[in-house]
Input
Amino acid sequence: MGNQIRTALLLAAMTACILIIGQLMGGRQGLILALFLAGAMNFFSYWYSDKLVLRMYRAREVGPAQAPELHALVSRLAQRAGLPMPKVYVIPQPSPNAFATGRDPAHAVVAVTEGLLQIMDQRQLEGVLAHELGHVKNRDILIGTIAATMAGAVMMLASMARWSAIFGGGRRDGEGGGAGGLGLILMSILAPVGAVIIQMAISRSREYLADDTGAAIAGTPEGLAGALEKLGAYARQIPMEANPATAHMFIVSPLSGRSLQTLFATHPPVAERVARLRGQKPGAAPPGAPTGPGPRDEGRALWDRLSGDR
Output
């Protein structure tokens, strides 16, 4: 509930940002235009982004014949979560990662990389898949689209405000509280930064919520916690060829090897997510926990079974 309240507050902050910019510009028409354009772009993204991102990563759909154990595991978790069976895709990349997409639970897609299937044991794979189904259950694709629409509107309004200030537009200080040229220029610089910070904060909040939901679906948080530890280690060793625009979709950021400030990060730190799942402080290890990522051969054997190569 805490993450849901935080998301609502962040969306409210984004809405307030849009209204403030509209007031400073003094033009309701510009505000409506920006919202319309941003909404139109994100409507297209909401309905077609799943196809675009799957094509971008050359993902292939697999059914019970191609990956019987993977398909059966997703089906079992979906039933446990009370969700329709999503489509299952495999991405031909060695870097371990996964994401969920689709405009609603009835059109959901769960995609995993070949690298993920190679290094995870059964319980860890279950934790990852449950996390992705948590995103589907929480309708995070819709929430992300709303946040992106608002952020896009802020950026468009900021751009309009900048040009308005340059060419002498905008309301004057004596005409009902609008901003002069200097105020518009400052707002046009600061507002987009604030919008991105809020959007990324929403993304991080939804990751925490999906962790909690995934642990409930799986029946235990330990599988997901162990998987996140492996993913954090392997993401640095085997970088993923990923588009930054899609980084927020993955279970761990494929850009984790690059320098990112916390405020602009799409994901919370892996160590904090693991600690939250285990009810510990960040940096503490559970008693008897393995010190390494585990035998790679065992993971490869699981991938062979999931692929049906016996």
Q: What stands out?
A: The beta strands are 60-61, 87-91, 98-101, 109-113.
